[in-house]
Amino acid sequence: MNVVMIGAGYVGLTTGACLAELGHRVVCIDTDAMKIARLKRAEVPIYEPGLSELIRRHMMAGRLAFSDDLASAAPQADAIFIAVGTPSDDDGDIDLSYVKGAAAELAPLVKSDAVIVIKSTVVAGTARMIANLVAEIRGDSDVHVASNPEFLREGSAIGDFLEADRIVIGADDARSADVLAELYAPLRKKGVPFVTTTTTNAELVKYAANAFLALKIGFINEVADLCEAADGDVAAVAEGIGLDRRIGRAFLNAGPGFGGSCFPKDTRAFAATGRRYRQPQTLVETLIQRNEARKAKLAAKIIAELGRKGGRVAVLGTAFKSNTDDVRDSAALTVIPALLDAGIAVVAHDPKARKATERLVPGAAWRDCPYEAARDADALVILTEWDDYARLDLRRISGLMAGRSIVDCRNLFAPHEVTRHGLKYVSIGRRPATPTTRQKAKRAGAGAGNWSDIAAAPA
Ligand code: UDX
């Protein structure tokens, strides 16, 4: 099939490349001429594992092209995806002007029987509103509008597309359902289930799915706080409840609070929709507040860990999760400014997200390797679960640090792995662990360290 993808952002590029992988001919369109010029040279503007290779392969095979000329590409397309941005306003409601703008531009260009597919995450009723808009502009109802939400995680988007848990097809007419079924037919052959429903239901599925996943995270984070107080271990609790197939283990990793481009924005939009229909989504409203408060509380916990004013903290990881350079709503954006405000010097490291972080939160010093960031630090804080951090040589870290505390917000280590190097280990959902007298003596014998911090720090 001939596909046009409007919007060469994260979702548009990944979906476009993956539709080419399914055998379709895809043209990705963007109004940013510079971006298109770079993409034509196979320079991919975002970091997503495997995406550059996939794009290059399909460009060479002639299945994937980039253009800023919608008027030339649209008339040949059987399906035109709209994957443009939907920024939030202060209430959490999303701004649909780019979606409407793209649909209005498309309306006179596309052939009869073409299907406009809304890929952008939009609130219930949007596809129907767009269908009316397109019909009004064209003066006929020959063009169809469908909804096909994406469930791609940054960092594993290609796998999430090609081995999807399900494809949700929102179609209010038979032509839309047929075209979308044909587009995704190779996935159906691989056994991926299809949910074919109305456009409104498809739009609700997207928000309800993200809200539910975010609630799982918010729930386990509160359980983690209880575990810390009650001398439990949140990982054991998550395992114990996660093996119940009705619950499932996924998305039960306690951490610094969720971030990223989707959960914070989508939960706010879902809550705003609830308010608009006078059906408040109280659980989600509370979740949003608790998640924000968690990040602020974390900053306070780190400051308390220093046990005194000022000092120096190494922050490892500023991306909202590993394998991405995205820092939107990441814990680091709350924690770093709070530490700086408290007069603490911050020395940061992230394998991919330095530039994006520096743009949003200036004031931290940066190092190219985690060990350099740890040098002379009074405390070391891990905010992102990069594999490199899980493999840190803690003995070396211990030798480099001035203080003794590691605050690990991703539970990358077993407590004894940290304490045996004479370090205090503060993690999530477990009591802080301090080195035993023997471990302290061993380290003192090695001639390094300063135990005053441990003595001063709250247990
Ligand atoms: C999410 C959804 O997973 C995806 O389906 C949707 O299309 C877009 O939003 P993404 O934002 O890329 O994807 O990342 P995800 O892996 O879901 O993580 C979101 C946030 O939750 C991150 O901050 C992550 O660190 C946090 N998280 C996730 C946890 O704290 N614990 C978990 O168990 C899982």
Automatic annotation (TrEMBL):
Transmembrane segments: none annotated. The keyword Oxidoreductase applies. The keyword Oxidoreductase applies. Residues 314-415 form the UDP-glucose/GDP-mannose dehydrogenase C-terminal domain. It is an enzyme of class 1 (oxidoreductase). InterPro entries: 6-PGluconate_DH-like_C_sf (IPR008927), NAD(P)-bd_dom_sf (IPR036291), UDP-Glc/GDP-Man (IPR017476), UDP-Glc/GDP-Man_DH_C (IPR014027), UDP-Glc/GDP-Man_DH_C_sf (IPR036220), UDP-Glc/GDP-Man_DH_dimer (IPR014026), UDP-Glc/GDP-Man_DH_N (IPR001732), UDPglc_DH_bac (IPR028357). It catalyses: UDP-alpha-D-glucose + 2 NAD(+) + H2O = UDP-alpha-D-glucuronate + 2 NADH + 3 H(+). Coiled coil: none annotated. Residues 430-459 are annotated as: Disordered. Pathway: Nucleotide-sugar biosynthesis; UDP-alpha-D-glucuronate biosynthesis; UDP-alpha-D-glucuronate from UDP-alpha-D-glucose: step 1/1. Keywords: NAD, Oxidoreductase. Belongs to the UDP-glucose/GDP-mannose dehydrogenase family. This is UDP-glucose 6-dehydrogenase.
